[in-house]
Write a structure and sequence with these properties.
Blueprint: E1 12-14, E2 17-18, E3 21-22, E4 25-26, H1 27-48, H2 56-75, H3 84-100, H4 113-135, H5 153-165, H6 167-195, H7 197-200, H8 202-239
Antiparallel strand pairs: 1-4, 2-3
Helix pairs in contact: 1-2, 1-3, 2-3, 3-8, 4-6, 4-8, 6-8
Length: about 240
């Protein structure tokens, strides 16, 4: 049976070393570039000549726009309108990473903690800076909700600070773990199908077909969860408690 972890190996495609640092163009970077090009080309084609009676591409693009706009409106409010491009970009980046990873012999860059942690840290740093820009030192009131008795503040404040600092960890691990576990299961059941032969191998094959459909659902849900949590964190920075 093939090693199910081999699909997560990062391999250099164009070796490059600068001042002792390995900055090779890897399979992960290639699929990130494919995600960028694919999404840009699709949205450019879908919105190039908008029609009163939209075609399939325009319907899909407009539906995605309305979906994210509704998410921003429901979770941040009218003040979140100016951050719509950021939220839309986050959703597309994560969704493309998840969906492209379902193509055979592709690479799921969202199954690597380095990628998901990078995204989560970027969101965390942006939200923190935004909070200080908008509220100054009053941003620290986020860690002490109104109405908390003085006797409980020594307990509540450390808990609130810890829960805030751990946000990038939980945000990144949730996406990375779900995508990695799903692809591992697909690979293992596919290996069973091959190892058990033509007759018995049909049983794990049916399980694998069901898992593929389930994994597509997980790919979308994880992009949705990652994005909606980003909205919630952004709302905290804008409105505090």
């Amino acid at each position: 049976m093939a090693d199910p972890l081999k699909q997560f190996e990062i391999k250099p495609l164009i070796p490059l070393d600068i001042a002792g640092y390995d900055v090779s163009f890897t399979n992960s970077a290639m699929w990130m570039a494919i995600a960028v090009v694919t999404s840009l080309v699709f949205f450019l084609i879908a919105t190039r000549k908008p029609q009163m009676v939209p075609g399939r591409a325009q319907v899909f693009a407009e539906s995605m726009y309305e979906f994210i706009a509704g998410m921003v409106r429901d979770n941040i409010g009218s003040k979140g309108r100016e951050y719509f491009p950021l939220i839309f970009t986050i959703f597309v980046v994560v969704l493309m990473g998840n969906m492209l990873g379902m193509i055979p012999y592709s690479f799921t860059y969202t199954s690597h903690i380095a990628v998901t942690m990078g995204l989560a840290l970027a969101i965390f740093i942006f939200v923190t800076i935004l909070g200080f820009v908008k509220h100054g030192t009053h941003f620290f009131s986020l860690f002490c909700p109104e109405g908390v008795p003085w006797a409980l503040k020594p307990l509540i404040i450390p808990i609130e600070v810890l829960s805030y600092l751990i946000r990038p960890v939980t945000l990144s691990v949730r996406l990375f773990a779900n995508m990695m576990a799903g692809h591992l299961m697909l690979k293992v059941f596919a290996g069973f199908s091959v190892a058990m032969g033509v007759g018995l191998g049909i049983v794990p094959m049916f399980f694998n077909v069901a898992l593929i459909g389930f994994e597509f659902l997980i790919a979308f849900l994880q992009a949705y969860v990652f994005t909606i949590l980003s909205c919630i964190y952004l709302k905290d920075a804008i409105e505090l408690h």
